[in-house]
From TrEMBL:
GO terms for molecular function: zinc ion binding. CDD domains: Bbox2_TRIM16-like. The keyword Metal-binding applies. Residues 15-58 form the RING-type domain. This is E3 ubiquitin/ISG15 ligase TRIM25-like. The keyword Protease does not apply. Residues 197-231, 262-296 form a coiled coil. Residues 149-189 form the B box-type domain.
C-alpha cells in the first residue's frame, strides 16, 4: 500500500519534461509545474518566436512569464523524497554493483529495466514510460537492460544489427547487405535464432537423453553397491555364525577332553594309590619279619630258635 501511494505521488509531483521529481519547482500561468531548469530550457528554444508554450497543455504566453519558486510544492516534494527513501528498498530502486544504470537519471542512478536499440540507452521504470506512451517511441525495439548496447550496432553504418551472415558467420545491418555482404547467404537474426533454438532443442534432447542414461547407470550402480553391501554383510553374518559355532564346538570338545583327562587321571591315581598302599603294607610286613628275625638271632634257646624258623 505504501509503494502504491508513493507511485501516485511521484506521478503528481514529477516534472513532465525530465520525468523526475520536481527540482526547484515553478508553476507557470496555466497551472502546470516544472523544474525551473527544465522549463527555462524549453522556453530558451522559443525565444526567437517570442511565444512561449506549456510543454504539457500547449497553452501559449506572451511575453515570457516570470518564474517564481513554488515553495509549498517544493516542501511537499522534499517530504515525498524522504518518504520514498524510507519506504523503498534501495536495492530495488537504485543500481548496485553489476546492475545496468539508467542513462537519464541525474544524481544517484536508478536500476535500468529496459534498453532501447533505437535510442542506444537504458531506462529505469520512470524514464521508460514515454516508450509506452509516445506513439513514435512505441515503435522502438526494447530489450532487457544491457550494458553493451554498442555491440548491437553496426560500427560502419550505425544501424542496428538485425541480420546474420551465414557466409561470414557475423551479425550485420541491412546496409551491409548492399555492400560487402551483397552475395552472401543471409537471414534475419530472428530466423537465425529460430534455427539455433531448434539446434539447441536437439542438443538439449541429446543432453537429456545422456542425463537419463547416466541416471540409469547411477541407479544400476547404486543397486550394485547395495547388492555388494548386502552380500558382504551376509558373508560377515555367516562367518560370524560359523566361527561362533566352531568356537562353541571347540569349547565343548575342550571341556570333554579335559573331563576325560581328569577321569583318566583319577583312575590312574586311584590304581597307583592302591598299589602304593599295597607296597607300603608289604614293606611294613617285611620290616616286621626282619625285626623278628633279628631278635631270634639273639636268642640262646636253641629249641625256640628252631621252632620259630
Amino acid at each position: 500500500m505504501a509503494e502504491a501511494s508513493i507511485s501516485v505521488a511521484e506521478d503528481q509531483f514529477s516534472c513532465p519534461v525530465c520525468l523526475d521529481l520536481l527540482k526547484d519547482p515553478v508553476t507557470i500561468p496555466c497551472g502546470h509545474s516544472f523544474c525551473k531548469v527544465c522549463i527555462n530550457g524549453c522556453w530558451d528554444q522559443e525565444d526567437q518566436k517570442g511565444v512561449y508554450s506549456c510543454p504539457q497543455c500547449k497553452d501559449t504566453f506572451t511575453p515570457r512569464p516570470v518564474l517564481r519558486r513554488n515553495n509549498m510544492l517544493a516542501e511537499v516534494v522534499e517530504k515525498l523524497k524522504k518518504t520514498e527513501v524510507q519506504a523503498a528498498s534501495p536495492a530495488h530502486c537504485y543500481a548496485g554493483p553489476g546492475d545496468v544504470e539508467c542513462d537519464f537519471c541525474t544524481g544517484r542512478k536508478h536500476k535500468a529495466v529496459k534498453s532501447c536499440l533505437m535510442c542506444l540507452a537504458s531506462f529505469c521504470e520512470t524514464h521508460l514510460k514515454p516508450h509506452y506512451e509516445v506513439p513514435g517511441l512505441k515503435k522502438h525495439k526494447l530489450v532487457e537492460a544491457s550494458g553493451n548496447l554498442q555491440e548491437k550496432i553496426c560500427s560502419e553504418h550505425d544501424e542496428v544489427l538485425k541480420i546474420y551472415c551465414r557466409t561470414d558467420q557475423s551479425f550485420i545491418c541491412y546496409l551491409c547487405m548492399t555492400d560487402e555482404h551483397k552475395s552472401h547467404d543471409t537471414v534475419s537474426v530472428k530466423t537465425k535464432r529460430t534455427e539455433k533454438e531448434s539446434e539447441l532443442k536437439e542438443e538439449q534432447m541429446k543432453f537429456q537423453q545422456r542425463i537419463q542414461e547416466k541416471q540409469k547407470k547411477v541407479q544400476e550402480l547404486k543397486q550394485t553397491v547395495n547388492t555388494i553391501k548386502l552380500s558382504a554383510q551376509t558373508a560377515v553374518d555367516d562367518s560370524e555364525r560359523i566361527f561362533t559355532e566352531l568356537i562353541s564346538s571347540m569349547e565343548k570338545k575342550r571341556s570333554e577332553v579335559t573331563e576325560l583327562i581328569r577321569a583318566q587321571e583319577k583312575t590312574e591315581l586311584s590304581r597307583a594309590e592302591r598299589l602304593l598302599e599295597q607296597l607300603e603294607q608289604e614293606i611294613a610286613d617285611l620290616q616286621r619279619r626282619l625285626t623278628e628275625m633279628e631278635q631270634l638271632s639273639h636268642t640262646h634257646d636253641h629249641i625256640h630258635f628252631l621252632q620259630e624258623i
